[in-house]
Amino acid sequence: MTVEPILVAGEWRRGRGDVYATRYPADDTVNAELAAANVDDVNEAIETADAARRRPEWAALKPHERAAVLYRISALIRERAEELAQLQRRDNGKPITETRALVASAAGTFQFFAAACETLEETLTPPRGDYLTMSVHEPLGVVAAITPWNSPIASEAQKLAPALAAGNGVVVKPAEVTPLLALELGRVCERAGVPRGVVSIIPGKGSVIGDAIVKHPLVKKVSFTGGTSTGRALAKLAAEKLMPVTLELGGKSPTIVCEDADLDHAVNGVLFGVFSSSGESCIAGSRLFVHESVRAPFLERLVAKASALRVGDPADVRTQMGPLITSKHRESIERYVQLGRDEGGRVLCGGERPQGGLYDRGWFYRPTVLDGLTNDARISREEIFGPVLVALSWRDEGDLLRQANDSAFGLAAGIWTRDYKRAWRIARALETGTVWINTYKQFSISTPFSGIKESGVGVEKGRLGILQYKHQKSLYWGLNDRPLGWAD
Ligand code: ADP
């Protein structure tokens, strides 16, 4: 097998780090072999990106010209959509229906930030003297985008598009197990006319090259999506440089079912919220709070449907849950389920690997629902990042909000009710960045996304998401005909 090149400083070449294989989680066959970037590659990529982003080919582009490059990226992604979706399926084992949606969303993200780029307005502020005052925004310099393995192309687009729209150079460090989509995005950027060296794609282990990226003096911002402990370590390094960070971290999101909810909608929504992407999603609705008066019938319907979810071949359009990302990750989920049992939980469904055929070759796990636990149990508090739902209950709104907000995380929440006043009250009182009401896990690039508490820092997406990758500058234009009086 040939060793795939990576994109360092405008050149496709072998990384100078370790050679490793990436594998298809559904059957453990090798997808590609590539040589990771080492610290020398990192330094070269960053220094080249800084030089390249200062050259007129990138720095002097008018907003509509830079937007045209992003529109071309979007069009090229759409042209290659099926190929990219199949590649992402192999890269991380998600079902093909899901990877098609992720590729479409990546194209939409570039289109959206192209539009944001060419329509961004600067402000003339009210002056308080004989001058004109303006607030404008400048590129930050080189931005590092560090992304996880769960939704590669979408996460990468979500950082790369606004960072480029803002006129920066960008180094993308995809997760070591899922580098292939980021590398393809590198090719797309080149074809779309992003000048050589502005973007580097440097796969590698976070523990090996992560510090070098974050500490490099020319890196002016890190946008990171991943686990809370990695994000915290990275923020400490960033603090030394007083560098801004955007951190999109973990979650333990509550989904709340009220007694007046349409239970059919709620069952489907809760299942989708926690089991789509095999639960490998920061926004997974992994804590179910169902009102005690409807708890028994709700759980009965939920468990029946969860047991019938189609776990299997990601290439099959009927598959709802593919494998988990690695065998090691599956083991970590199994340890959590065991912990739940040890803490007194009852497994209502799942709690095991499916057996036979493809199941024996990949990292599959059945959708799992546990009850009999409280919100204090460790599996109610820690992010499992897998297909595991903890079913809890509540009595009144005060009790509900106390439990739902009693979490280290604050990423997302769902509410199922027919009562719009109640939905409003609960939504406003939940300590989370996003609340879905009578729906779950819906996303539009035009709506900002953020987490609070240990779920993150900063905002991504939305029309002003581009400003996350610029710094603000104020201009004062003197309009006096006479010299300033003070020096006379
Ligand atoms: P996940 O559980 O999604 O693997 P991680 O936080 O470990 O979460 O990984 C997210 C991304 O962060 C990956 O690209 C990973 O390689 C990278 N990463 C891991 N450790 C570090 C580090 N010390 N510094 C910078 N990036 C890191």
Oligomeric state as shown: single chain
What ranges have pLDDT less than 50 throughout 5 or more consecutive residues? none
In which order are the strands of the major sheet placed?
Answer: 15-16-17-14-13-19-20
Over the alpha carbons, how many angstroms does the gyration radius reach?
24 Å
- The outline comes out as globular
Helical amount: 25-40%
* Spatial separation of the terminal alpha carbons: 78 Å
What compounds sit in this structure? adenosine-5'-diphosphate
Strand fraction? 15-25%
- CATH level 1 name of the largest domain: Alpha Beta
Mean pLDDT: 97
How would you describe what is shown here?
There is one protein chain. The chain contains 15 helices and 25 strands. With 488 residues, it is an alpha/beta fold. It has two domains: 3-249 and 455-474, Aldehyde Dehydrogenase, Chain A, domain 1; 254-437, Aldehyde Dehydrogenase, Chain A, domain 2. The strands form seven sheets. The protein has a seven-stranded mixed beta sheet with strand order 15-16-17-14-13-19-20, sandwiched between helices. The longest helix is centred in the N-terminal third of the chain and has 24 residues, at 96-119. The mean pLDDT is 97.
